[in-house]
Structure prediction request, 361 residues.
Amino acid sequence: MSTVLNFNAGPSMLPPAVLQQVQAELRDYRGSGMSIMEMSHRSKEYEAINSHAESMFKQLLGVGEGYRVLFIQGGASMAFAQVPMNFLKPGDTADYLITGAWAEKAYQEAATVGSVREAASTKEGGYRCVPRPAEIRLSPNASYVHLTSNETIQGIQWHTYPDVGDRPLVVDMSSDILSRPVDANRFALIYAGAQKNLGPAGVTAVIVRESWLGQASQRIPTMLRYATHAKNNSLYNTPPTFGVYVLDLVLEWISKSGGLEALGERNHSKAELLYEAIDRSKNFYRGHAEPESRSMMNVTFRLPSETLEKQFLAESQKAGMVGLAGHRSVGGIRASIYNAMDVGTCQTLASFMNDFSRRNG
Ligand code: PMP
Prediction:
């Protein structure tokens, strides 16, 4: 079997131990004589996975009984519309903090549903940082405030979430969920596509405060109401059963790896290896993010020319590293180093970077 060092931005690498377990259980799920993909979502086996995943998720995030964890579909892109459909009351406004391409998309999509405003934007500076507290202008009665915890394309991350008073805070955590300890109780709603830190594509995790759910609109289609999925324990319709099964194994893996505290430290050291290589290169590599907003998940940088960037990608690929091209909208290099990646792989990339800049600088 050949494997590569996988820096893909999402879908991205999964913990090898999880893949091995999936393989071992594929044809005969724990003595049932069939694969998890072949059994009813109402079976006792699947119900056990579904409820274990919800309680494990709550435990890892440190949220209590006042929250529900839902496993639904549509990706974060669906949530961009679904959040305002549920929670943006007619005549009211929602505040958006615009920090990059994904926050922009969330804002634009919400604008198709109701009235939204930019409470801050770092677009003018080229999305290199999150706004400082003094730059954020919140409306007094915002239905909610929305932010993007980690901008996957630009490589920008919030390291301290802003104080929004008693306005409900909604966060798109698609690319950094469960990667570090957070005070999840501060959020009214967290959503994330699974395909980076949680499992395979096709599952969207939604963590929602139950008291807020009680205020959601009833005037939208059944499938789009978060309350429908909460009331039915994510089993209103056929869920993406295989994806939730793998997600549950990933949650177990996170717990066995020491939980968010341990993963946070590991993710920090991984990112440090790459940022050190950037900083040490005396401007050969130019990091996109300002140091205080550097992402621990997506490390983005440019080289002195596009020709050198092409050469970097070709040579790194020969050395077994894939997925390092920056997003097509911004170019350059992006190393996505989510939870499943080990320190050694980041070390390999950092050594390659040091060597490449020495040879070409
Ligand atoms: N938000 C962020 C921060 C993302 O990184 C992505 C996907 N890369 C999305 C939203 C869109 O997610 P999906 O493809 O699951 O709809």
User: Anything to note?
Assistant: The mean pLDDT is 97.
